[in-house]
Design a protein that fits this description.
single chain, 502 residues, alpha+beta, 5-stranded mixed sheet, 15 helices, globular, disordered N terminus
Length: 502
């Protein structure tokens, strides 16, 4: 009997033909799985066309769960399906332990820096950070001077972006402290992968991430100005038109906190904050605010803000309410201050940084600016206080006209720009148009800085879905993956089991 040829599945992963074009790949090295990846890759390879079906199932689940993100355009606000790649990123527990230690070290130093710059400013007096850089920072809030937040903590929540270069070195790309977002997508990604890869979650020791809302709730409760009493905790959102509104809803739901807008809160003559409830005003103890500093309180900052609460800064300064993150934390994620983070860590902790910074030129400095202006086609230029990938200039992709425009912008406002070398970001297998191909990616773990620091056992992996692109932001066409922190030995057992089944 003649046997019909088996059609080759377009999506089938074949390690021998997976070409990562010389980039460091997170899962494959010279045609073989990296440590800890054998079980996952073995399973995915065996799926064949079913991998595409799992992708479709994941996308259907995300739609059913109502997971969207909002982008702003000239036509208004647009809700779009959350872009998700079903192939997870895998990191071993050994590497994750090193990453976690480095992240905690970094956020510890950041909090000491914030306490200092809003206090005695010893680091400026000792000329570790230039005074002129601090005083010219748009996110330094003089209104926060001499405040002493609970536990001495200003930055309670951080989303730190990590990237790996072509040599395999992991770098901190930036610290996100003002209103770090994305954690809800990390949680939703995990829920989806647990549905579509239930078999792998059975066979592998994949560390959970779903304790984050509980950890966050515990941290917020510890900040209450009325210890011993059950705190009233609110999530303050700008409203439904904010790009992260979905996340605000999820976090409030998961924590059992009140989701409020500015109009729902008032500050009384006693400097306490009250929530306007049906049964009368309820005193608020802790606010997880997702409103930028300048819109937080029209009495203290922008008088035209309708998103904030008049008198909120006064209440916080009086110690009647806790704000997370505290106002003024944005000075520490200023990209020009970022360049000094290694020195900041050494200054406050007398330790060497455990995670590297990307080499950064601060255009504020005349010598460094001169170098930047003569090498614009070789550098990435970033505005010091933008987020979401806005305003990034990649010299190797720019035309002569665009380079000339960027030169003029730097010369006109050097404080507003830093420059970094163009890193060859690592890749990972990604399902695009039915094919498994390498795509560049980064990683955003979330760190809580309370009495006991906590790092999520994973994070939000963002992936550039366009070939060759290194821009991973969703608003710029990027997608996301689940991040699996796994025990390498467990994956070996799963790989052996997979081989026996085949």
């Amino acid at each position: 009997m003649e046997v019909a040829p088996v059609p080759v599945a377009r999506s089938r992963m074949r390690l021998e033909s997976y070409a990562n074009h010389g980039y460091w790949d997170e899962m494959v090295h010279e045609g073989r799985p990296r440590t800890g990846c054998a079980g996952v890759l073995g399973h995915l390879t065996a799926l064949g066309d079913e991998l595409v079906e799992r992708q479709r199932a994941a996308e259907a689940a995300l739609r059913a769960m109502g997971v969207t993100f909002t982008i702003y355009s000239d036509a208004g606000n647009i809700d779009r399906p959350w872009p998700f790649d079903v192939i997870p990123r895998v990191i071993t527990t050994q590497e994750w332990h090193s990453i976690s230690v480095g992240l905690i070290q970094r956020l510890t130093a950041i909090n000491l820096f914030l306490e200092d710059v809003y206090g005695d400013q010893k680091i400026v007096h000792d000329r570790v950070v230039p005074r002129a850089l601090l005083e010219s920072a748009s996110n330094f809030r003089a209104e926060c001077r001499e405040v002493r937040p609970v536990h001495g903590l200003w930055a309670h929540i951080s989303g730190t972006d990590l990237v790996r270069d072509s040599g395999g070195t992991l770098y901190v790309l930036e610290d996100n402290l003002r209103v770090p977002s994305g954690v809800s997508y990390m949680l939703e990604n995990r829920m989806v992968t647990k549905r579509v890869f239930a078999d792998l979650f059975r066979d592998l020791d994949i560390y959970p991430v779903d304790s984050y809302p509980h950890r966050l709730l515990g941290l917020l409760a510890s900040l209450s100005p009325r210890p011993g009493q059950e705190p009233c905790i609110c999530v303050l959102t700008p409203g439904v038109y904010n790009s992260a509104y979905f996340e605000h809803v999820i976090l409030a739901q998961e924590m059992g906190a009140h989701l409020v807008e500015g109009q729902d809160l008032v500050v009384g003559d006693d400097d306490c904050v009250y929530m306007l409830a049906v049964r009368g005003p309820v005193r608020v103890d802790v606010i997880y605010r997702r409103v930028d500093d300048l819109f937080l309180d029209p009495e203290a900052f922008r008088s035209d803000s309708v998103l904030g609460v008049p008198g909120l800064l006064r209440a916080w300064r009086a110690g009647k309410v806790a704000l997370a993150n505290a106002p003024g934390t944005g000075i520490a994620d200023d990209k020009a201050i970022y360049a000094f983070m290694p020195e900041i860590i050494r200054y406050y902790l007398s330790e060497e940084p455990k995670l590297a910074n990307v080499p950064t030129y601060v255009c504020f400095d005349p010598l460094q600016r001169r170098h930047v202006l003569s090498h614009l086609n070789e550098l990435v230029i970033k505005p010091t206080n933008e987020s979401g990938g806005r305003g990034i200039f990649i010299g190797s992709f720019a035309s002569r006209s665009e380079i000339a425009q960027m030169r003029a912008r730097i010369q006109a406002d050097p404080r507003n720009f830093v420059a970094q070398p163009i890193l060859q970001l690592s890749t990972a297998p990604t399902l695009c148009d039915g094919k498994v191909v390498p795509r560049h990616l980064d990683l955003r773990p979330f760190i809580l800085s309370g009495q006991r620091p906590y790092v999520t056992q994973g994070g939000l992996t963002r992936v550039a879905l366009r070939e060759g692109s290194i821009v991973v932001n969703s608003s710029q066409g990027g997608g996301s993956k689940d991040t699996w922190v796994v025990e390498p030995m467990a994956t070996n057992r799963a790989s052996q089991s997979q081989s026996q089944q085949q």
